[in-house]
Design a protein that fits this description.
The protein has helices spanning 52-61, 120-128, and strands spanning 2-4, 14-18, 32-36, 41-43, 65-72, 82-86, 92-94, 98-104. With 129 residues, the chain is α/β, with parallel strands linked by helices. It is rod-shaped.
C-alpha cells in the first residue's frame, strides 16, 4: 500500500489499485492500492528580520514562491529586512503557493520646524494653540 498526497481525494480513501477496478486477480492474489494522504500543506516559514534574498531562499526550500513585496515603516525591524508575510508565519499553504512579503523602511521619520532664534515662550504658545 502506497500513500500519496491528493488535492482531489480525501485522506484515507483509495486513489487507485493494481489491478484496477474490474480487473481480475488469482485467488489469494494481491491487490496493490494507493491511498490518499489528503492535500499536501506546507507551513509558511518564519522569515521575519531576514533579507529579501534569505527570505526568498527559505521560501524556495519550503516549496513556496515569492509573490509581491511591499514596504512599510517599522520601529522593530531594521531597514531592508522582512517585517511579515501573507499568508503569515505558521499558516498552511498549498505546495508552490505564493507568499507576499513586507519589507521594512525603518523607523518613520517626520520633519520638524526650526525654532532657532525664536523666543521659548512663543514656541510654547504656538504649540499649545
Amino acid at each position: 500500500r502506497d500513500q500519496v498526497f491528493s488535492e482531489d481525494i480525501a485522506k484515507g480513501l483509495i486513489i487507485s489499485s493494481d489491478p484496477a477496478g474490474g480487473g481480475t486477480v488469482e485467488k489469494s492474489g494481491t491487490v496493490q492500492v494507493t491511498v490518499s494522504k489528503g492535500p499536501e500543506r506546507i507551513v509558511v516559514p518564519d522569515v521575519k528580520a531576514m533579507t529579501l534574498a534569505d527570505a526568498t531562499t527559505a521560501l524556495t526550500k519550503a516549496h513556496l514562491q515569492l509573490g509581491t513585496t511591499t514596504s512599510a515603516f517599522s520601529a522593530d525591524v531594521q531597514t531592508g529586512l522582512v517585517i511579515g508575510s501573507s499568508p503569515s508565519v505558521g499558516q498552511p499553504a498549498k505546495k508552490n503557493s505564493i507568499v507576499s512579503l513586507v519589507i521594512s523602511k525603518g523607523i518613520s521619520q517626520i520633519a520638524i520646524n526650526s525654532y532657532v532664534g525664536i523666543i521659548y515662550h512663543s514656541i510654547i504658545r504656538t504649540t499649545i494653540l
